[in-house]
Specification:
Helix content: 40-55%
Strand content: 15-25%
Number of helices: 2
Distance between the termini: 114 Å
CATH topology: Pantoate--beta-alanine Ligase, Chain: A,domain 2
Strand order of the largest sheet: 1-2-3
Shape: rod-shaped
Number of strands: 3
Radius of gyration: 30 Å
Order of helices and strands: HEHEE
Number of domains: 1
Largest sheet: 3 strands, antiparallel
Structural class: alpha+beta
């Protein structure tokens, strides 16, 4: 009859196995929490950009003399303002900015803020508009 040798784990081997398990679980939890915070930040950046684009499209379609944004255009928690100015510092020739046959190039500067007044983002867009100042 063969002798069967029973091998048992020593206390040191069990402690090392538990330490390896704890390190791997700690790394997995850390990776998960970092990934979750990255997803939240990406979602917030997307919401900000989406609200800015909605506001910009609204202002581009609106009458440049009346740039009050209507209710329901932006998601809750945001407000936007727009100013229409002469383009400056955009490497444009002086002739490009002047009105021509009743049309002029203007810069729409759109600013997006939270309801608390914190500026979130801004965007500048050039548009040729009717110039009634002739």
């Amino acid at each position: 009859m063969k002798n069967i040798i029973h091998h048992r784990f020593s206390l040191l081997e069990i402690l090392i196995a538990v330490a390896i398990l704890a390190l791997s679980l700690g790394g997995a939890i850390s990776l998960f929490s970092t990934s979750q915070s990255d997803v939240v930040r990406a979602r917030n950046r997307w919401l900000d950009q989406h609200a800015l684009e909605q506001a910009t499209e609204y202002f581009l379609m609106a009458n440049p003399d009346n740039l009050d944004i209507a209710d329901g255009v932006l998601p809750d928690g945001y407000r936007a303002s727009c100013s229409v100015v002469l383009p400056e510092g955009a490497d444009l020739e002086a002739e490009t900015v002047k009105a021509f046959r009743g049309w002029a190039l203007r810069e729409y500067r759109v600013e997006l803020e939270t309801d608390t007044g914190e500026r979130v983002r801004e965007m500048s867009v050039y548009k040729i508009i009717r110039d009634d100042s002739r």
